[in-house]
């Protein structure tokens, strides 16, 4: 009887133990099943891009993200001023447009290829150079079109928009980051910034002389105001452009309005052939008998500005542009 009782007790204990073990296993399996989608999801979710996988990344003027896998070795610039900026950053160029020679008079190595003009670059010649980075302007229609071809050819490019000194400084920072010559950002950027700041610190901003800024070309002339590079410099130096008060001057250089305003200074910058541009000006508004009675003309304040400082982007000479105007407006401060 005792043996029967013992066997029954053993069987009950064994069954209980088996049930607890089975329940434990089922619990573990249930947890695994519940976690499976999470674990699977973790494995199949695309990994986020890590910027460290690129040599350098930045956002261009059209808000495109540009990811350079390596330091560019075969760079092409389709804008002369951008070519100069790249060189000021310590870079080399495989191809440029002809404005680097015709306008900027840059001294480039013989092996540097001319790939057309700034407005009509030759895409075949560009691709023949096997570039790994191309500098473009968003303001030139042909550059926007070329970017589509470059994209299809897996050639990296970036758009830069440089109108004022701050834009140049931003571009130079990106370029020196890419070339690795950060000391050139100090030399050709921050030192220029200090030069400009020193000029602005000396001027009397309460003086506010009225000025007229004219862009002259062979077929005529137009007034410009604050969106223009030279006008921005003039504005920073405390002048008041009469064209900002008379939008009509931007379309028609009306002598009636000019006589009415009688500006203290008239500044002119030429486009294209300077002689032809100035002749067109003389054959135009300067023929008016009232021209010689303007205060600016009578006081020898009709001034033709150098193109290299006020038409072409001056880049590392931007500080010189500010000094040039400041010496005219405030001669007692800049002896």
**Biggest sheet, strands in spatial order?**
5-4-3-6-7
Radius of gyration: 34 Å
Sketch the topology as an H/E string, one letter per element: HEEEHEHEHEHEHHEEHEHHEHHEHH
Given as residue ranges, the uncertain stretches (5+ residues, pLDDT < 50) are 17-22, 28-49
The CATH superfamily of the largest domain is known as: Nitrogenase molybdenum iron protein domain
Percentage of β-strand residues: 5-15%
CATH-defined topology of the largest domain: Rossmann fold
What's the architecture of the largest domain in CATH terms?
3-Layer(aba) Sandwich
How many beta-strand elements?
12
Major pleated sheet: 5 strands, parallel
Structural class: alpha/beta
Percent helix range = 40-55%
CATH class of the largest domain: Alpha Beta
The rough form would be described as: globular
What does this protein structure show overall?
The chain is α/β, with parallel strands linked by helices. It has two domains: about 55-190, Rossmann fold (3-Layer(aba) Sandwich), CATH 3.40.50.1980; about 205-330, Nitrogenase molybdenum iron protein domain (Rossmann fold, 3-Layer(aba) Sandwich). The protein is built from 14 helices and twelve strands. It has helices spanning about 1-45, 80-90, 100, 125-130, 140-150, 165-180, 180-200, 230-235, 250, 255-260, 275-280, 295-300, 305-310, 320-330, and strands spanning about 55-60, 65-70, 75, 95, 115, 135, 155-160, 210-215, 220-225, 240, 265-270, 300-305. Strands 5-4-3-6-7 form a five-stranded parallel β-sheet, sandwiched between helices. Strands 8, 9, 10, 11 and 12 form a five-stranded mixed β-sheet that branches. A hairpin with a 5-residue loop joins strand 1 (about 55-60) and strand 2.
């Amino acid at each position: 009887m005792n043996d029967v009782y013992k066997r029954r007790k053993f069987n009950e204990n064994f069954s209980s133990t088996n049930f607890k073990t089975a329940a434990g296993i089922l619990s573990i399996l249930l947890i695994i099943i519940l976690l499976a989608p999470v674990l699977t999801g973790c494995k199949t979710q695309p990994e986020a891009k890590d910027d460290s996988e690129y040599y350098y990344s930045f956002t261009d003027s059209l808000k495109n993200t540009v990811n350079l896998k390596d330091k560019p070795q075969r760079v092409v610039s389709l804008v002369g001023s951008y070519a100069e900026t790249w060189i000021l950053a310590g870079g080399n160029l495989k191809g440029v447009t002809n404005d680097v020679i015709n306008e900027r008079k840059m001294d480039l190595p013989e092996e540097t290829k001319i790939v057309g003009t700034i407005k009509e670059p030759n895409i075949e010649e560009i691709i023949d150079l096997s570039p790994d980075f191309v500098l473009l302007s968003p303001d030139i229609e042909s550059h926007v079109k070329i970017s589509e071809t470059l994209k299809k050819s897996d050639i990296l490019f970036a758009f830069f928009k440089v109108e004022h000194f701050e834009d140049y400084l931003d571009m130079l920072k990106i370029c020196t980051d890419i070339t690795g010559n950060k000391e050139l950002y100090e030399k050709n950027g921050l030192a220029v910034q200090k030069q400009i700041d020193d000029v602005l610190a000396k001027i009397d901003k309460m003086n506010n002389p009225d000025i007229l800024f004219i862009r002259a070309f062979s077929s005529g002339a137009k007034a410009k105001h604050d969106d223009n590079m030279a006008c921005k410099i003039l504005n920073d130096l405390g002048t008041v452009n009469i064209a900002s008060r008379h939008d009509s001057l931007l379309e028609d250089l009306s002598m009636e309005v000019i006589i009415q305003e009688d500006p203290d200074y008239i500044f002119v910058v030429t486009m294209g052939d300077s002689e032809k541009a100035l002749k067109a000006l003389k054959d135009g508004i300067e023929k008016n008998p009232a021209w010689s009675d303007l205060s600016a003309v009578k006081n020898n304040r009709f001034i033709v500005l150098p193109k290299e400082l006020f038409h072409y982007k001056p880049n590392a000479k931007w500080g010189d542009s500010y000094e040039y105007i400041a010496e005219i407006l405030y001669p007692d401060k800049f002896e």
